[in-house]
Amino acid sequence: MKKRCLFMAAVLGVSATAFAQKKGFDYKFYGQVRTDLFYNSRANSETVDGLFYMYPQDEVLDPDGNDLNSAANGNFYTLYTRLGVDVKGPMWGKVKTSAKVEVDFRGSGTSYSMFRLRHVYFNLDWGKSALLVGQTWHPLYGDVAPEILNLNMGAPYQPFSRAPQIRYRYTAKHFMLTAAAIWQSQYLSVGPSTNVAGSTATQKSQNFLKNSCVPEFYAGVDYKQTGLLAGAGVHVSSIVPRVNSVIDGETYKVSERITGVSAEAHVKYTYDQLLVSAKTVLGSNLTQTSTVGGYGITSIDTHNGKQEYTPLRTSSTWLNIAYGKTWRPALFFGYLKNLGAGEDVQGVLGTGTTLDQLVTGSAELTYNRNHWKLGAEYSLCSAWYGDEFDNQAKVISSHSILNHRLVVTAIFQF
Q1: In 193-326, at which residue ranges do the beta strands (DSSP E only) sit?
Q2: Tell me, what's the pLDDT at 23?
Q3: Where residue 388 falls among pLDDT bands split at 50, 70, 90?
Q4: What confidence tier does 105 reach under pLDDT thresholds 50, 70, 90?
Q5: What is the fold of 27-413?
Q6: Are 82 and 104 contacting, i.e. CB atoms less than 8 angstroms apart?
C-alpha cells in the first residue's frame, strides 16, 4: 500500500512539474460522479439502455391481444460520470487562446462503460469576435436548453447533439451573431440501409453527410442583457441518401440529394432564483439531433431506380420553469407535432415517422448543496401513433400510448 502511495505521488509530482514548465498555460480540471436510477412503465424509444429516454413505443399485440411493449423496466447506471479540463493558453499576438477536452463513460452505440469525447475544441478570441474549431454543442442545441434531471435534456422537443464544427461568433453591445459549418460524428442522420429502390429500411450512418461533401450550416442572432437571452436561427442540411441503386437485380450509379431548411427561436429569463426558458423548432429532416422526422420518397426512376425526396416537417416546443437555489422545484412541458411532407410520397425514411404528436409533462425537485445535487423527477409522456395516413404522410386517425417515468439522481461535482 505504501509503495502504491509513493508511486501515485511521483506520478502527480511529474505531472505538476510538466504543467509548470508550460509557460503561459493555465489548467482547470473539473468533473462529476453521476448515478442515475430510473423506472419506466413500458418499453420506449431510447438509447444507452434506457438512460437517454425519448418517448413510449407503440403497442405490439400478441395473438391473445396483449401488448408486448407494456412490460415495465428500470436500471441503475454511472455512465455519465465525466472528466474535463479547460486550458487557457498564451496570447497569440492580440488573440486569447483556449481549449477544452471533456469525456464521459457513455461509450458508443451498444458499447457502454467506455471513454467518449463530449467536447474537444480550441478557441481563438479577438475580443468582439471568436473562432471555435472542434466538437461541442450543435448550434440548434445552443445556449438555451432545459435544466432537468433526465439526460435527454428535453429531446426530442429540444435538438440534442454534439458535433464537429467551425463556429464564428461576433459580439457587439447586446447582440451576438453566430455562423457555423457543422459535420457529424456521434449523432448521425438516418437514411436507407439498402440500395434496393423503393426500400424504406433505415440506418444511422456518417456516409449520408460524408457523400454529400457539404456540411450543415447554421446562422443565428441573439440579444443579451441582464437576466435575458433571446434569439433565433436558421439551419440547412443537405445529405446524399444513396450513390448506387439496385433495381431488377442490376446496380446503377445514381445522383441523389435531400435538403432541409429548419428554423428555431429561443428565450431564457432569469431573475433572482427564478428561471423561465423556452424554445420552438420548425424542423426538416433533423434526425441527427435526436428528434423525430426524416424524408419521403416522391418518385422512383423505373430505369435505374434513382429516387427523388422531400423532407418531413415537425414542429416542437418546450417550456421549462424552475425556482429556488438549495431546494429547487422545476416543471417541464413539451409538445411535438408531425406535419408530414409538402407533397405526395411513396414511402418514408426516418425516426418516429408513424407518430402524430407527442406531449410530455414532468416535475422534479432537487437539493443543491456545495458540490452535491440530489433529485427526483417524474414525467408522463403521451405518444399518439397513426392508424391511417394520407398521401403526404400526415396522420388521419391515431391512438395514444402512455409511459410513466421516474428518475432518481445523485451527482457529486468537482
Answers
A1: 202-204, 216-225, 228-239, 244-247, 250-253, 258-271, 274-284, 293-300, 307-323
A2: 84
A3: very high
A4: confident
A5: Porin (2.40.160)
A6: yes
